[in-house]
Write a structure and sequence with these properties.
The protein has 250 residues and is mainly α. 74% of the residues lie in helices and 0% in strands. It is built from 10 helices and no strands. Helix 5 packs antiparallel against helix 6 and helix 8 packs antiparallel against helix 9. The chain is globular and about 55 Å long. The C terminus is likely disordered.
Amino acid sequence: MGKVQWVPWWWVAGGVAGLVAIGTATPLTAAAWTAGVGYLVVSTALLLRAIARGRVERFGPANAVTATRSMLVGLVTALVAASFAHTVPTALLVTLAAVALALDGVDGYVARRTHSESELGARFDMEVDAFLLLVLCVCDVRFVGWWVLTIGLLRYAFVVAGWMLPWMRQTLPPRYWRKVVTAACGVALAVVASQLLPPAGNVLVAAAALALVLESFARDVTWLVRVNLAATPLVSLEKASTISPPEESR
């Protein structure tokens, strides 16, 4: 791997520097520091594990963009954690989230332009998206209710289902609509977090986002069920246990 294993830690250092800068504007509680730094370290450790398993030798510009997004997610995580103890600058929280969401369209473009698309990059991008949605859901609980967590938890419920049901780990066909739904949900959750809408407006926006993500996941689960029914050997636990499942694709 050469020096690629050290590259992601630069974004951890950048994230810590960002937390220090934020701390000069608004106090960060111990929980906020733990959440922010914890995310940066754990996500980087998981990324390095994937790099090692995939024998990746070059981090690449697209992954650098995604790492920048991940760093911003760490800052948002810390602010959301701090917001449960005291008021934090809403404009700062929403701006950081908005930049992270906007960059979601940049890493894929950079990967295509530099011919550096990879399974690692796609997975990295997807996991950053998923965690940002979850953090924004946690932030929005106070404005619309606990049910909004469903939006952020569906991705992780899908992963858990894959651990228990081998046929749920099949590679899904490419579908651009997934990216559209993720982006739309991120924007909707950021709008709710901005507190610019009246309470009823917040509920309507969050409910629309929930409907979108439920439709997207239901479509993928339906496809997996149909494929499983068409490929009966996958239903056999004895045979499934001897088959190396493909990588998760959601």
